[in-house]
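Quick check before the chapter quiz. The format below is the same one you will see on the exam, so make sure you can read both the input and the output lines.
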Amino acid sequence: MLLELQLDKQELLTINYFKEIALGFEMGNASNITRKWNAPMKIFLDGIPSSSLINKVEQTVSDINELATDGFLIEIVNKPDLANCYMFFGSASEFIEKFPDAEGQIRSNFALFNVCWDDNNIINKGRIFIDINRPNLTQQKSLILEEITQTLGLGKDSPRYLYSIFYETFSNGGFATEYSIIDKELIRLLYHPDMKVGLGINEVDELLRNILINE
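Here is the expected output.
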């Protein structure tokens, strides 16, 4: 109760949203715990991204790097063998040709992200698909922002906040091309020096309260 009284309404909303977004992933059967990178994410861009889309990737990377304070950062690399995150811009059929295992996920989706993690729940590999044929340019920029962000370990969607990048549907809005304030807070808190991996809902609740109270 004492911790509750020391937090304002927005901080409590942020904690609840973090627990909704940052524990587990929409696809698969991964346990609902925190996961994140502890080494640089090195992204290689493949396919045929326009200069506008490359600029959006660069802006997203810059925004994330400013929010992370635990030593994590994202780099864009120019060779695939230097990368641990592969990002492809093209058609669904082209991506399926490269990654046949993605077919079941991608036919009805404009974008896709997958990540791998080690036994310690540290994310160490990712791949991202952005469809540049079906969605329009605004949608493509929104998808870039969302998929890179979810690859960080913020892996779920929600209907809670219309202008959040994690808004679960494109109907009635939801094409966020910039981070909302609460989106930035989720990234900042996941990549805060005190945030740990492997935390369940009760453990992460307590840790978030302590982080926010002590700031």
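If your answer matched, good. The chain has a mean pLDDT of 92.
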